[in-house]
Amino acid sequence: MLDVASGRVVSPGLVVVQGERIISVGGNVPVGAQVVDLGDTTLMPGLIDVHVHLFLHPGAEDLQTVQESVPERTLIAADAAKLDLMAGYTAERDMGSEGAGCADVAVRNAINSGLIPGPRMRVSCNAVDLTGGHEDAIGYNPAQHVLSNADYADSAEGLVKVIREQRKGGADFTKIYETGKDSYVGGELKTPYQYTVDELKAAVTEAARTGGTGLGVSVHATGEPGTGYAVTAGVESVDHAYQLSEATMKAMREKGIFAVPTFAISEYFVEQASSDAGKTRRREMQDSHAAAFKKQLAAGVPMAVGSDVGPFPHGTQAWEMVLMAQYGMKPIDVLKADMINGAKLLGWAGQIGELKAGYYADVIAVQGNPVEDIAAVTKVGFVMKGGVVYRRP
Hints:
The strands form 7 sheets. The protein has a 4-stranded antiparallel β-sheet with strand order 5-17-18-19, with no helix packed on it. Helix 2 (70-86) crosses helix 3 (103-112), helix 4 (156-168) packs parallel to helix 5 (197-210) and helix 5 (197-210) packs across helix 6 (226-233). By secondary structure, it is of the alpha/beta class. Helices cover 34% and strands 19% of the residues. It has a single domain (49-346), classed as Metal-dependent hydrolases (TIM Barrel).
């Protein structure tokens, strides 16, 4: 059994569950208890992915939002949630419904009511973007008025208004696009910022008014100065984080702001490149990010685990954890980033992320020892969420 906080695998592993909670760990089997013997496997807390897209699937992202209706995409999202749960992910953060509005609220509520299987969800409705920004249907015939995949906000007042509308619709937190479109010039990332520090501060303040930990603002931000602006404003996480200045890294460490590297999506796009030149360019970008990641680790930047799954198949995103270890993080630190930091970022610290009495009974079993070989997290054979078994050998 994995003790995440101490970084040890202890034996034998025993978790006693009553209802939806863990009531004890270790010791003896209570008299009269139903026993689920999982043999030579490692028990561990359910996995957490803090950057998913339930409403996306492999294929042309831009065309999905044009060709598929919101009802169709909602059914696709429900299936994606099930796939992720069966892969051991018992908690996730959906980082924007990509043009489906607050349909992610319906998916979250259906999961919570037991209507469909899926992870515990934090949802944001659409992401927020400015006119002509990262997700504003750039490249289409303007006369066709193709809709943005995000909600428009072009000022501090606009951000506050959108946040209020989304919270009214049931959003838990807010995702803002802070950088894009990215380009590499002479091997160096160049990306324009979208909102100023003051504009982002207005969004953070408004989210804090009705929210709390895990219910604030997180940003899509790949490079400076946008990454620095977001950290100065006090966001909860910087997702992608390809490029962080020394000052930004220092501030993230001091403020406890998480970086979410999302290596898996980039790795997928390397493999899917349509030409050798394209594959080479994408590999160079990934290598640049890996080098920056090592600097971030050395600087003490807090990490959480998010895969950006959706454009690549749901249920396969545990590869993100393997890549984080491959690029320089110790396996136990990856596990802590996923479970302990993931729980903090989602606002569920003390509720999920560890196998402890009083926590939700989110328990999985994997083949192997993930502290010795992080790839064990890709070999899930048993899944329990809230005391309900969804998968067994």
